[in-house]
Amino acid sequence: LSQCSYFNLKCLQVIWTTLLKVYVKGGLFEKSRELLLELEALGYAEEEMPYCLLMDGLAKTGQINEARSIFDEVKEKGVKSGGYSHSIMISAYCRQGLFGEAKQLAKDFEAQYDKYDLVILNSMLCAYCRADDMESVMRTLRKMDELRISPGYNTFHILIKYFCKQKLYLLAYRTMEDMHRKGHQPQEELCSSLIFYLGKTKAHAEAFSVYTMLKYGKRTMCKALHEKILHILIAGQLLKEAYVVVKDNSELISQAAIKKFANAFMKLGNINMINDVMKVIHGSGYKIDQELFQIAISRYIENPEKKDLLLQLLQWMPGQGYAVDSSTRNLILKNSHLFGRQLIAEILSRQQMMSKALKSH
């Protein structure tokens, strides 16, 4: 009989607590308060959960003073607490911009409790980060390590934003790397900001790594980010990586940015990839100008062992409607002994015939 009574009481407690959740979710805070009083009278509010439900609802609707009143009530009545009420109030203070209060409450929790979970640790981290208390941030992280509590998505997100705010961009990058290794996909906005900051501080390779994490993740990606990373890679002379960005996303990149990339690659890029780059930028709809051809051909002439690549480029040009101008033609003829006079003469002759045919039309 006693077991049945206990079972019935537990069922009743679950029903009333569920009803409290419904009232809170519907914004019926007066009814929620009345129901909480009834739960207290029946002895169903000996633990903090019913209070936390109401406190959280009030806090999330901006009623911070009312939420604080419930929190104080929990303490005054000696309600059994595992720290969840602290977590709710710390988060509420952070949302309201009351960072000093959030920080103080986090310190109160540390002094009062020795039991932690990821939720409360995230709340504490948020409070310390928003209050710019680096010492407390690092202490909380050490505590997570000691307790072997693995950081979650929110933990990483809080830390990356904080490290960026503190201009510790490489630390933010390493944190994002760790986040990615643990299987969490960072937000596009956070990645975009970090890419910008890393590029600004000349951490070009790290910026590309963040771009790659985002590109091959499951989240959507802003089209403008492809051009943003392209400019960063060009500035860092990471031209092989820049080539990959252009090759995969040429339709999303402006002609001006493609021209900037093409000029940089022809001057400084891997000579073995010049012809591939020419084909990609032509395929993007960009009309290759004579200056680019002259730079590429000059590099081939400076490296006679690359004669096959020069011949391939010259043979490719007519089919795409290109022909070298007179100054580049003279440069090639002047050095034709390096590449085979007869073959060079034949290729240039075909180019000239094609050029005349195009002009006649």
Automatic annotation (TrEMBL):
Q: Spans of PPR repeats, please give.
A: 47-81, 117-151, 152-186
- Pfam families, alphabetically? PPR, PPR_2
Q: Which UniProt keywords apply?
A: Repeat
Q: Does the keyword Repeat apply?
A: yes
Return the InterPro entries for the record: PPR_rpt, TPR-like_helical_dom_sf
Gene3D superfamilies with a match to the protein in the record:
Tetratricopeptide repeat domain
Q: Would you identify the family this protein belongs to, as annotated?
A: Belongs to the PPR family. P subfamily.
NCBIfam families attached to this UniProt entry: PPR (TIGR00756)
Name under which the protein is recorded: Pentacotripeptide-repeat region of PRORP domain-containing protein
Upper taxonomic lineage: Eukaryota, Viridiplantae, Streptophyta, Embryophyta, Tracheophyta
